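Schema walk-through. Below, the input block comes first and the output block second. Nothing else is stored per chain. Lengths vary across the set, and this one has 70 residues.
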Amino acid sequence: MPLKKIELNELKAQIQYAINTLPDYQKEVIILRFYYDLKIREIATITKASVSTVKSRLQQGIKKTGTIFG
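--- output ---
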């Protein structure tokens, strides 16, 4: 396996670990936004939360996962 592919797999595992450390409500919006590429309004509709709540959850989730990577 080429080195770059190994590094990519390790990065994917780290990202998945970071996401799994989040509370469910933050994990949900992170997955919908970045894995399913949904817009904020779409996520708000799906989660039955306000647009501002979705934005806040995204921001908090991104911040928390960022601290894991140092």
